[in-house]
Amino acid sequence: MLRYQAVAEVIAEAVRQEKKISEIVLANQAQQLEKTEQELYAQMENSFEVMCQAVVQGQDPKQKSTSGLTGGEGFKMKRYAQSAGGGLCGSFMTRAMSRALAVSGCNAAMGRIVAAPTAGSCGILPGCLVSLYEDKNLPKKDVVMSLFTAAAFGMVIAAKASLAGAQGGCQAECGSAAGMAAAALVELSGGTPEEAADACGIALANQLGLVCDPVAGLVEIPCIKRNVSGMMIAFSAADMVLAGIKSEIPVDECIEAMNEIGSAMPAALKETALGGLAATPTGMRLKAQVFGV
Amino acid sequence: MNVFDIIGPIMIGPSSSHTAGAVRLGRVANKVMNHVEPVEAVIELSGSFARTYKGHGTDRALLAGILGYKSYSEEIRNMLSIARERGLKYKFITTDIPGAHPNTARIHLKGAHGEECSVEGASIGGGNIRVDYINGMRVDFTGEHNTILVLHRDRPGLIASVTNLMKEKYREVNIGNFSLTRPVKGGDALMTIEIDGLPPQGMIEAMGQIDNVINVILIRSI
Predict the structure, then answer these.
(1) Chain B residues with beta carbon closer than 8 angstroms to that of A164
(2) Which of residues 257-286 of A touch B (CB under 8 A)?
């Protein structure tokens, strides 16, 4: 019986059953929600398809946010990935960046997205997983299943810390999404449950202290670009672990640190748009431009 | 909490609290109108809703809910023109409701034949809501469970009539939460009944047949 109160508990159960994290989570959730595993898989597959559609919609060159502050980032990055031969990071990575920008931009333009775990961080999991599906040709079933792994880590973070920027800053939103994605990437790459946990820990640790300071209180600046950095942190954390590098601080302790840092963060830096980038002269000017003075 | 609270909801952006939650608040008002198409909506916005509603599309989201759309309906984006096409006159008023949650909306609706309702509630984060007042009567429910609202005249024995009906004819129904609000003795009163699972067929209608019950509304969990 999984309670999702600690990552160690989930890992121990996966090791005991000699199964993937995604498999034990699917079985457990089917029991909890009184549905069949097939029904839950179908629901998750639907969520993954919405992620794929959001990528396409967000790469439209004409896409503009409701406020008019942002738009077109996904398209520009996709064009650059093609024309610049992959740019500095290489074709796979720049295409993944385009997807993260696209989904996050789709959200800002009132398109349909999957909050994963939140709307503000909705580009990170698609940036990682749609890229493995479309560019590395991983089987759809494996990719959909890895979302159950991501969700399990998210449930533990929600229980031990928070997933809301208003409570824990951006580390709770983009940080959590990156940690969840890193764990999913490791499972998809054949890593063990322990390695998935380490990747989550490294990704979280690399975003500790990140504040939530959206310009004009809108989910646009800097949120859209932070989805790209979160996605890249997820990939680098997964690659480090797959290279044999461990997280010295266990993931459960990283989550506790994140919670403590979130509590210590001043309210001005927790989605109130009163501090950080929101309070810069340009941030204030953009706010006046959208809402009037 | 389950996996779809984390990977989900599927929603129209940009904000779970300012957009998805706003649709759900609007949907409660839609349900309270009980199949009457609203022709006039006056919506008061308080706190963060008042300051940022345009940039988050909160206005379109509330109207979408009022017109029966869901938080994943693509039409939300074009809701200002859809509302006009459907003959709904709307007005947004920014205000400050003292003591209210920062994301509070107060929705007043009118139908073509004098029908009226009001709903006040807050979007409390992650697309979740809390309903505080219906038609001026204090309530407290989240819409997380299937919720039955029974508007009735304040008469002795009425709660027993409603719960007896459930006990006698619909034994499988389990009440998870029950509350009663009554602003004035002998006036209108409101029962809020949260149940596990969906009500069996015919139960809502049967409740509506009880003497002194004015109206019964089911708000399905989302």
Answers:
(1) 125-126
(2) none
What is the spatial distance between Cα B11 and Cα B15, in angstroms, rounded to a whole number? 9
Q: Which whole-number Å values give the CA distances from B121 to B41, B61, B101, B131, B141, in the listed order? A: 15, 14, 9, 4, 9
Q: Name the pTM for this structure.
A: 0.89
Is A223 in contact with A214 (CB distance < 8 Å)?
yes
Q: Is A118's Cβ below 8 Å from some Cβ in B?
A: yes
ipTM above 0.90, yes or no: yes
Give the nearest partner residue to A291 out of B2, B14, B55, using CB atoms.
Answer: B55
- Do B3 and B41 meet the contact criterion of CB atoms below 8 Å apart? no
A29: nearest CA partner in chain B:
B2
What average pLDDT is seen over chain B? 93
CB-CB: which of A114, A164, A180 is closest to B8? A114
* pLDDT average, residue stretch B74-80: 95
CB-based contact, A4 to chain B, within 8 Å? yes
Neighbours of A92 (CB within 10 A): 15
Whole-angstrom distance, CA of residue A120 vs CA of residue A104: 7
